Amino acid sequence: MASAPFGSTLPWSEPSWYTGRPSPYYKESHRKLRDFMRKWGEEHIAPYTEEWSEAGAVPPSMYQECAKAGLLVPIAAGKKIPSEWARYGIVAGISPEEWDGFHDMVLWDELMRAGGVASLFIGLTVGAPPLLKFASKQLQDKIFPEILSGEKRICLAVTEPSCGSDVRNLTTTAEKTPDGKHYIVNGEKKWITNGMFSDYFMTAVRTGGPGAEGISMLLIPRSEGLRTRPVPVIAGPLSATTYVTFEDVKVPVEYLIGAEGNGFKQTMVNFNHERLWIAFQALRGCRIAIHDAFQWALKREAFEKKLIEQPVVRYKFGNMGRQIDALQAWTEQIVYELEQLSDTDGARLLGGTTALLKVESGMVCKYVAEECLKIMGGLGLTKTGQGARIESFYRGVPSYVVPGGSEDVLIDLGVREALKLMRQAEKAKSKL
Ligand SMILES: Cc1cc2nc3c(=O)[nH]c(=O)nc-3n(C[C@H](O)[C@H](O)[C@H](O)COP(=O)(O)OP(=O)(O)OC[C@H]3O[C@@H](n4cnc5c(N)ncnc54)[C@H](O)[C@@H]3O)c2cc1C
């Protein structure tokens, strides 16, 4: 049955279920979250994004506002919220038991739509899961109250100046002191999102020999010997991309995440959610761009016609619309599948698929950004006014292409994973 439309009526500016069309995935609680987030974003974020972009930072008080609204809890947890976390905040009255992967999708979609502030949470959404999934209870009990209340912030530090895609060869070392009570960390990490304002660095370090087996995950508090400096990147300063240096940083052994040698696997398990979440952001980025381009095409006249009356312009919208809705449908299918699977089965069966979904997200963004920019004409290259959101989206497209796994690397991974599953299926069939 169709329901009441919500949000913009411009074609492809909202997901199809917002327009009133039926969907098997969204229930009343998803609509409740969507309505809450839209209102909250329009009150607390949208009016200030231009000011924050000009200042080059979001004020710390905004992070506290997000904590107060209960946003940090689902952002740290992803698709499943531990029930005891209800004490740190509940968004829109939706309990941890009710929360699912589609709530996660709606939350990110609306945060992205509100603008600017979404980049504040990247560190939390990629840095918290190893703590939640693999750390000791003592460490969780110490750190989660700090980071879920917004008092402290966390980020994920894996990439180094000399190794990104090739995580197996990272060189930052963590050596145990002779008394066995501490690790001494030395090395460098680069392009660490949110690092400038983080208090904790969830860091992949080498505790053993070469290769994946020698890698461990260590939570490193900001302390003597840990230095950060900004790395200016194309999308601007709000995500606080950072170069981190560790020089004889002393870390208690209790800050090791799980067992030594598990760091590579812990990094990989994280990727399903990270790549999905990039798709969530890409989708809303595309919808914002097509919304602004449509508004312009309906009113701008050239050669005695509105732009939308030009078949070439309509051709662009048709091609953008079909790609955005196809990406939405694929993303929802994967959210649904991950919802039904354990994390381990999800990583085994869908690791390659989420890699390819992330690639597709970047490709759709590239296409939509370029077509919308062209429809806007000069306004598409202008940082203020009606083309400003498209200019910013166009500039930000590489952020969907390289971080979270570079396009070329992920395409190859997608095929290798598909072949692995094919061989497993052949083996299972041969036993029948
Ligand atoms: C804005 C931004 C934010 C980031 N945030 C974080 C963060 O918070 N935490 C973190 O740990 N990291 C972060 N990163 C790092 C990011 O994950 C890496 O940049 C990415 O994994 C690519 O690694 P690299 O830059 O070392 O490129 P390289 O690994 O050197 O690869 C360069 C290029 O070589 C080609 N290539 C390399 N290997 C292969 C292969 N096997 N098959 C085919 N082609 C290949 C690809 O075209 C690839 O793009 C961020 C990066 C950016 C730019």
Supply the key terms.
432 residues, alpha+beta, Butyryl-Coa Dehydrogenase, subunit A, domain 1, Butyryl-CoA Dehydrogenase, subunit A, domain 3, globular, binds flavin-adenine dinucleotide
Your description of this structure?
The protein has helices at about 30-45, 50-55, 60-70, 70-75, 100-115, 120-135, 135-150, 265-300, 310-340, 345-375, 390-395, 400, 405-430, and strands spanning about 155, 175, 180-190, 200-205, 215-220, 225-230, 240-250, 255, 300, 305. It is globular and about 80 Å long. It starts with about 25 loop residues before the first helix and ends with a helix. The chain has a 4-stranded mixed β-sheet with strand order 1-4-5-8. Strands 2-3-7-6 form a 4-stranded antiparallel β-sheet, with no helix packed on it. It has a two-stranded antiparallel ribbon with strand order 9-10. With about 425 residues, the protein is α+β, with helices and mostly antiparallel strands. Helix 9 runs antiparallel to helix 10 (about 345-375). It folds into 3 domains: about 15-115, Orthogonal Bundle (Butyryl-Coa Dehydrogenase, subunit A, domain 1); about 155-260, Butyryl-CoA Dehydrogenase, subunit A, domain 2, CATH 2.40.110.10; about 265-430, Butyryl-CoA Dehydrogenase, subunit A, domain 3 (Up-down Bundle), CATH 1.20.140. Helix content is about 50%, strand content about 15%. The mean pLDDT is about 95. The protein has 13 helices and 10 strands. Flavin-adenine dinucleotide (FAD) binds near residues 159, 164, 193, 241 and 408.
